[in-house]
Specification:
The structure is a single chain. The chain is α/β, with parallel strands linked by helices and 644 residues long. The strands form seven sheets. It has a seven-stranded parallel beta sheet with strand order 14-12-3-2-1-20-19. A seven-stranded antiparallel beta sheet has the order 7-10-9-8-11-4-13, with no helix packed on it. A four-stranded parallel beta sheet has the order 24-21-25-26. The longest helix is centred in the middle third of the chain and has 29 residues, at 344-372. Mean pLDDT is 92; it is low at 1-16.
Length: 644
């Protein structure tokens, strides 16, 4: 048993000098040096080796350094993500807003549905992009704080809108007429067709909403496919509003202005620490930096047909990047899942370039920090939970391109909810990430739950919960564990006062983890090929899941990792991959006993064979799941026979 030594009372077992620290925690509530020292002493007594620095002036930072040296602690600090909010950029006028495509027409999200129109002139009413089917401000105060309720909060039309009419469906080439549409605020008495918020009509948010009127002319287009018309309305943060919302997707990650702001943030952080340390960076204490948090761009709950993804990023810099990286004659997709209009290559390229831009944006900070302090470790919480979430895909999260850039991999599968312990989230997320850590020779430091989050229905973990969390993570050979987190002043923090018994249980966990040998990750028997050509097409529409291939692959991986407790390595394959890169990937894949994918791939089992271009309902997935379970069990049997 892991916890047979529970009564040992071990205070702190540090790793050997120079070894990677094993136990980390985020920290909060410390406003003075005295409070910071109380926290430091308590953390050391419980086996914590790395704590988060608290923001403050030079004297406060200097005091933190002195305290950490006194107690033998290390620190990490964070820099805010300038793509989310940067008031200095607003004041200077040197910025480029991120732009999304979304909205709701006839009760359906326009970014993932096509519509039928007749020839002639049209005026239609479009609702703002829907964030959640039922989260009106009055019902969920937390989301009111963020500015999101039923609709995405704080976004206004850019003044640009388009109507996309296929002259013919995609046949290896696009055949599109892209027409400008006039976009203006609708009159106060305007009513949308099939109002997405009819069930929330009494909510203040809905009473005060502003609808959009779209005007366009389809005269003379009788020969086109007017049964498959796309609508695109572009939105950006209302940066002139006094109700500016922090942390709400403001600036384009493609933009040179945003990347320059990132460089300034890096320089300012380095200068602060040098000043606090008497002129040199305190590399003996400060060992890591967190580059922002979770989502790059606001996404949605995808809990109804009216909810937009939305599609990011349609800024001028993003469109220019697409044009430069994509074969001539291919325009970017305005409607998700519409491969019959745009072709699969355009959709895959759009999603991959967005993911790559987010990773390159972080790399600006990584490179600058490394140039100044080569030992400094960079990380970011790379998803808000759910490595296979399509909502997270559309906020800019591409796990493999991020794994290439960051020094260690970090994410937060939090399992302790008011409805009970979710035993599947850690195995599902961590199997994905541990494979990337092995492939890229990166450290793995997951964020473990030590907090409650009322609006997310997370509750304080008990000692038994903590032990289960720890044991589940051990399977994936983490290099360290990080708690969220420690704050003596906040009731939402489990440590030290939210659940004192859990804080004592954590002490035992830390002692056990500190004694374990350095983790070794062996190459698993299975490789999973996940191409963007399928990933970018899967789309929840009113009638089910269109292009379900990637979603079927997800179901197979869920069975493999959760039900069968097997490991795998993921390969996120970009579109238009150069031949040399493809050959290198093929050589790497040849080392695995089994390879699976959701497309026809050399040497791989196609788990979605025969499902291309179909629409899957819940019943279809239930039937397919049984086939996948049989396949997974068969592959496990082959592995075991091979080992004998």
């Amino acid at each position: 048993m892991l916890f047979a030594f529970a009564a040992m009372g071990v205070a702190c077992v540090f790793a050997a000098e120079g070894a990677f620290p094993r136990v980390w925690t985020s920290t909060g509530g410390c406003r003075t040096a005295e409070e910071f020292e109380q926290m430091a002493a308590d953390c050391v007594a419980h086996g914590v080796q790395v704590v988060a620095s608290r923001n403050g002036d030079t004297d406060f930072l200097a005091a933190q350094l002195a305290i950490c040296r006194k107690y033998g602690l290390k620190m990490f600090f964070g820099i805010p993500d300038p793509s989310k909010t940067d008031n200095d950029a607003r004041k200077s006028g040197l910025y480029e807003l991120a732009v999304m495509s979304g909205g709701c027409y006839r009760g359906l999200a326009i970014d993932r549905n096509l519509f039928a129109f007749t020839p002639g002139r049209h005026e239609i009413i479009v609702e703002p992009p829907v964030y959640s089917r039922d989260q009106a401000y009055a019902k969920h105060p937390h989301y009111y704080m963020l500015g999101d309720g039923h609709y995405f909060g704080g976004y206004v039309p850019t003044g640009e809108a388009e109507v996309i009419v296929p002259e013919r469906l995609f046949d290896g080439r696009q055949h599109l007429r892209i027409l400008p549409a006039k976009v203006e605020w609708a009159p106060p008495d305007a009513k949308p067709e099939n109002d997405s918020a009819a069930h929330l009509a009494d909510a203040t948010e809905i009473k005060e909403r502003r609808l959009v009127k779209l005007s366009f002319d389809l005269t003379g287009l009788e020969g086109g496919r007017l049964d498959k018309v796309g609508l695109a309305v572009y939105w950006a943060m209302d940066d002139k509003s006094p109700d500016w919302k922090p942390d709400r997707t403001c600036y384009s990650v493609f933009s040179r202005h945003t990347r320059q702001r990132m460089r300034w943030r890096v320089r300012a952080a380095l200068d602060r620490w040098r000043k606090a340390n008497g002129g040199t960076f305190p590399a003996d204490v400060v060992i890591a930096v967190r580059l922002g948090d979770e989502i790059f761009n606001a996404t949605s709950f995808l809990n109804g047909p009216a909810v937009s993804f939305p599609l990011w990023d349609y800024s001028a810099s993003a469109r220019d990047a697409f044009a430069k990286a994509t074969p001539e004659g291919v325009t970017y997709p305005r409607t998700w899942g519409a491969s019959e209009v745009y072709g699969p290559g355009a959709c895959a390229q759009f999603l991959y370039l967005f993911h790559k831009a987010c990773a390159d944006y972080l790399k600006v900070a990584v490179d600058d920090f490394h140039a100044a302090v080569p030992t400094l470790q960079t990380f970011r919480n790379t998803t808000r939970g759910g490595v296979w979430s399509y909502g997270n895909d559309h906020d800019g999260t591409g796990q493999e391109v991020l794994a290439e850039v960051l020094d260690f991999l970090h994410l937060d599968p939090y399992p302790v909810h008011e409805g009970g312990y979710n035993g599947g989230c850690i195995p599902f997320d961590m199997a994905y990430m541990s494979g990337l850590a092995r492939r890229y020779n990166k450290r793995l430091v997951p964020w473990l739950q030590a907090h409650r989050f009322p609006s997310g229905k997370l509750v304080h973990p008990t000692p038994d919960d903590l032990r289960r969390i720890y044991e589940q993570h051990l399977r994936f050979a983490p290099d360290g564990i990080m708690w969220l987190g420690y704050n003596a002043q906040r009731e939402n923090s489990t440590f030290p006062n939210g659940n004192k018994a859990s804080w004592e249980a954590a002490k035992v966990i830390h002692a056990d983890f500190a004694k374990r040998p350095e983790p070794v990750r062996k190459r698993p028997d299975m490789a999973v090929v996940r191409p963007y050509s399928a990933r970018a097409l899967v789309c929840e529409c009113g009638d089910g899941t269109r292009h379900p291939e990637d979603a079927i692959l997800c179901e197979f991986v869920r069975i493999w990792s959760r039900e069968l407790s097997r490991e795998y390595d993921i390969f996120e394959v970009p579109p238009f991959e150069p031949e040399a890169a493809r050959a290198k990937r093929a050589a790497e894949l040849a080392r695995y006993r089994h390879v699976v994918s959701c497309v026809d791939w050399p040497g791989a089992t196609n788990v979605a064979a025969g499902c291309a271009d179909k629409v899957f309902t819940k019943n279809d997935f239930a039937k397919k799941r049984e086939e996948l379970r049989q396949l997974a069990n068969s592959l496990v049997s082959q592995v075991e026979k091979g080992r004998k």
